[in-house]
Amino acid sequence: MSLSEQIMADMKQAMKEKNKIKLNTVRMIKSALMNEKIQLGHDLNPDEELTVLNREKKQREESIEEYEKAKREDLVDETKKELAVVESYMPKPLSKEELDAKVTEAIKEVDAKGKSDFGKVMKALMPKIKGRADGKEASALVREHLN
Questions:
Q1: What is the CATH number of the domain that holds 54?
Q2: Are 24 and 40 in contact (CB under 8 A)?
Q3: Where is the chain membrane-spanning (predicted)?
Q4: Is 126 a residue whose pLDDT tops 90?
Q5: Which of 22, 27, 51, 59 has its CA 20 to 30 A from that of 123?
Q6: Per-residue buried b or exposed e for 127-142, using 16+ beta carbons within 10 Å of the residue's own CB
């Protein structure tokens, strides 16, 4: 089942269950995917869909931070529920060990010798972990390995 088919099925299910948060979040995802499709001028491939989902996830994470600073617990709770819905469409995240293995593999792949090869390693690594690991976490791990 494609992502768009899954979203339509989940939207119908959320309507039946009268789950407003899930319904609104799924509609936002559908809208973001449709906007991206229109902007690019073609049907989205899985990589492009993942990029849109990552963008939606990041927006909600940033919103949660801002709401916490403003001490708006009602909005924090609602946004965390939205975030959980967005994450349900994303691939399973990599464990620490899996990420470490991918970093080691990327370092060997580009034959990195030191800190100066950081960019090369990240360029090789990011497509392999896209949507499955945090970029900040990955870059910290790469720096650790190159030191």
A1: 1.10.1510.10
A2: no
A3: none
A4: no
A5: 59
A6: ebbebbbeeeebbebb
100/84 same-domain check:
no
Tell me the per-residue pLDDT of 89-117, one tens digit each, with 9 for 90 and over.
988 888 888 888 888 888 888 887 777 87
Cβ atoms of 33 and 4 within 8 Å: the answer is: yes
Chain centre distance of CA 27: 17
Hey, what are 99's tokens? 């990420």
Residues 71 and 49 in one domain: yes
Question: Burial code of 34-54, b = ≥16 C-beta within 10 A, e = fewer?
Answer: eeebeeeeeebeeeebbebbe
The structure's pTM equals 0.74
- Tokens standing for residue 67: 């709401």
Cβ contact 132:120 at 8 Å = no
Do residues 107 and 73 both lie within one domain? no
Q: Residues 53-72: pLDDT tens digits?
A: 989 999 999 999 999 999 99
Cβ atoms of 51 and 91 within 8 Å: the answer is: no
pLDDT at 26: 95
